[in-house]
UniProtKB/TrEMBL annotation:
The gene is sestd1. Residues 357-468 form the SESTD1-like spectrin repeats region domain. This is SEC14 and spectrin domains 1. The keyword Repeat applies. Residues 55-134 form the CRAL-TRIO domain. It comes from the Eukaryota.
């Protein structure tokens, strides 16, 4: 019978074993009876639970106890209060019933109870010094029975589990997950047992003052039982912990192996197929950007599996640091397989990313170069109508700059195209497959790059040829403008010479020598004007030739030549008149000097002097008539 079954009855304290003993070393069972409150049935149940050997009874009231006193009782002491002895005298012949009852019955007062039981074996209810707490006893009893029940059940379960582990280890096909879990928490049961044992042992050494306290018999008997159960439980629990550790280790290894194979299977399967189908580089910048976006999506999918790889690698590293020797080889093999596959896939991703970035650079440069060629071609196809030589020089400089930019762009395109092809060739090769394989796609990419570079080279060559023609045309136009400007300058210079001739060349000299010198200077002056006129004529002739070559009309072809001829004719007429007057003045000064040198002047010399003087005067008064009919009087 368990205490929990009759717990309400035990709490009523109908009977109790205080732990004391009579003079015959029998246990003392105290029954504080009350005729109107005590149930004989409950009392009988309590006694059946408490009594396991012969003991002495102490009853506080007389009653018909032969129906409730068990056969294990050897002596019954019926204790009556002192007031009972004062009220009436009773005669109980209990000794006559000894043979019938099977035990001796004594009727005593509380102060005479010590004749049969030592005071130290009596509780304070009977004037003794024995310490007894019924609630404490009941609580310990419940804990003891609970621990005994749980530990016994737990020992049976752990024994079954540990024995089943042996069969599991021999039968590898049987899953480790089939190991049963115990009904009770071993840690909790062990803690309960240790607390119970500590409480039982603590009462033995409780206090040093007063008489030595002797523990209850059941407490002394319970300690070895608790110790034995704790030892057995620790042994089985240690085996169970090792079993769980091995099971967890195997489970962890199986989980890691499963995850590793999941990562490897995806990377070698769907992941590789995604990369194999993405081998194009596009035919334009927009197509390359779309491919880059698709590649980023593929990278995002791979990053999830790479995150699993990092986590698995950390778990494997942790297990390797604390793992057992038989697990190291398996873990290292899994780690190596996982690392090889992940690194190979990461290399493929990085290579594809590098190719796409290089392809975007190639398409960007190709697009820019195409725009530059279009701009250059548009400039070459446009009609050239510069206003002056400076505009032509500026246009020519702009043309050269555009051509240099095209050359630099083409060089950059070749460099980037070569880099793309090298990156594609350096990528890890895929297994040869049928049409549409990565190798065939790479060959198509190489051909596309080469075709783009060849096309750009041809367009550049055509533009260079047109630039040469435009450069020659612009240089001719520069020469044309230069000839026109210089011819106008020649007209201006000739006009300035004419003005100088008409305004400053008016003296005829004071003597023959001075007139002779002035005549020489006049001839040289005429020679300068003649060379200026010839230079202007040559420039105008060159202008005509350049206009014919350029198929255009000169801006000054209509008036420069007539102006040049008109100024030259005016100069020719004026210089001829100047020369005639200087020659007549020289004859006059020569004749005058001859007359002055003669001591006796003859008439003939005087006539010559007079004739030359009149001729000079007539010449000076004669106006100059230009070819256009303009009349000018030269003042001397």
């Amino acid at each position: 019978m368990e205490a929990t079954v009759i717990l309400p009855i035990l709490k009523k304290k109908l009977a109790f074993l205080s732990g004391g003993k009579d003079r015959r070393s029998g246990l003392i069972l105290t029954i504080p009876l009350s005729s109107d409150q005590t149930s004989l049935e409950e009392l009988s149940t309590t006694l059946d639970y408490l009594l396991t050997e012969h003991c002495s009874f102490i009853l506080t009231l007389p009653m018909l106890f032969q129906n409730v006193i068990p056969a294990e009782v050897s002596l019954v002491c019926v204790v009556k209060p002192d007031e009972f002895w004062d009220k009436k005298v009773t005669h109980f012949c209990f000794w006559k019933e000894k043979d019938r009852l099977g035990f001796e019955v004594i009727l005593v007062s509380a102060n005479k109870l010590t004749r049969y039981i030592e005071p130290c074996q009596l509780t304070d209810d009977f004037g003794g010094s024995l310490d007894y707490d019924h609630s404490d006893w009941l609580n310990k009893r419940l804990i003891f029975e609970k621990f005994t029940k749980e530990s016994t059940s737990l020992l049976d379960e752990l024994s079954v589990i540990n024995e089943s582990d042996k069969s599991t280890s021999t039968n590898k096909d049987k899953s480790a997950d089939s190991v049963l879990l115990p009904s009770f928490d071993p840690e909790t049961v062990l803690q309960t047992g240790h607390e119970l044992l500590s409480e039982l042992q603590q009462r033995r050494f409780n206090g040093s003052e007063g008489p030595a306290w002797c523990p209850m018999e059941e407490e002394l008997l319970a300690q070895p039982q608790v110790i034995k159960l704790l030892d057995s439980l620790r042994e089985q629990y240690t085996r169970y912990q090792e079993l769980c550790r091995q099971r967890n280790k195997r489970t962890q290894l199986d989980e890691i192996h499963t995850k590793v194979m999941q990562v490897v299977t995806w990377l070698q399967g769907p992941g590789s197929e995604l990369l194999k189908t993405q081998q194009e580089i596009g035919d334009s910048m927009r197509a390359a950007q779309a491919l880059q976006q698709k590649h980023e999506e593929i990278e995002s999918q791979h990053s999830e599996w790479f995150a699993v790889y990092v986590e698995l690698n950390q778990q494997i590293a942790t297990l390797l640091s604390i793992g057992e020797e038989e697990d190291v080889a398996e873990l290292k093999a899994l780690q190596q397989q996982l690392s090889d596959v992940c690194y190979r896939q990461a290399t493929q991703l990085e290579g594809r990313q590098n190719v796409l970035q290089a392809a975007q650079g190639f398409h960007s440069t190709s697009q820019e170069l195409s725009q530059q060629l279009d701009s250059l071609l548009g400039m070459l196809c446009a009609d050239v109508a510069p206003a002056d030589g400076a505009s032509i020089q500026q246009n020519l400089k702009l043309l050269e700059e555009k051509l240099q930019s095209v050359e630099a762009g083409l060089a950059s395109l070749r460099q980037k195209g070569t880099m793309v092809m090298e990156l594609m060739c350096n990528q890890p090769s895929w297994p040869l497959e049928e049409a549409g394989s990565p190798a065939e796609e790479q060959q198509n990419n190489v051909q596309h790059i080469q075709a783009v570079m060849e096309e750009m080279q041809l367009r550049k060559q055509r533009c260079e040829d047109m630039v040469d023609v435009r450069r020659l045309k612009m240089l001719q136009m520069v020469q044309l403008f230069k000839c026109e400007e210089d011819s106008l300058q020649a007209v201006q210079w000739l006009g300035e010479l004419l003005d100088a001739l008409l305004k400053t060349h008016i003296r005829l000299g004071d003597d023959a020598q001075e007139t002779r010198n002035m005549l020489d200077k006049h001839r040289k002056f005429v020679e300068v004007a003649q060379s200026t006129y010839d230079y202007g004529r040559q420039l105008l002739q060159a202008t005509v030739v350049l206009c014919q070559s350029l198929r255009c009309t000169t801006r000054s072809s209509g008036d420069t030549l007539p102006r040049l001829n008109r100024v030259w004719k005016q100069f020719s007429v004026s210089s001829e008149e100047r020369q005639q007057r200087l020659e007549l003045a020289l004859e006059f000064h020569t004749a005058a000097e001859n007359v002055l040198q003669q001591e006796c002047v003859d008439m003939e010399s005087l006539d010559d002097l007079d004739s030359s003087g009149k001729t000079l005067l007539d010449r000076l008064t004669m106006p100059v008539i230009f070819p256009d009919g303009y009349v000018r009087i030269l003042v001397q």
